[in-house]
Design brief:
Blueprint: E1 8-10, E2 17-19, E3 23-25, E4 33-37, H1 38-96
């Protein structure tokens, strides 16, 4: 028997049947798509962002600060490693003279 290919889905928020391209993918969902269409999902996210704007911005700034610190640590470590490498190469050259 041939399996029917689903080409549309009904949004659970606006209750409008729309083509699957109007839904974001979600692998955990049985059909592989979110329950809300992209338009409704965008609307929901705007409301949630508006409610939590300060908290979201604070979290983003905190993560950015942590990433900057991590980058500085990695750059410092890289400089130390490069300095050691140059010293080793210099020693080798001096030994061969």
């Amino acid at each position: 028997m041939s399996e029917q290919v689903k080409i549309s889905k009904t949004c659970t928020k606006c209750n409008i049947e729309k083509p699957l391209v109007e839904f974001n993918k979600q692998t955990a969902s049985p059909d592989g798509y979110k329950n809300y269409c992209k338009d409704c999902f965008r609307e929901i996210n705007k409301v949630l962002y508006g409610r939590n704007k300060k908290k979201i911005i604070k979290r983003i700034l905190s993560k950015r600060k942590e990433l900057k610190k991590e980058i500085k640590r990695e750059q410092k470590q890289l400089k130390l490693e490069q300095k050691k490498q140059v010293e080793l190469e210099s020693q080798k050259i001096l030994e061969n003279i």
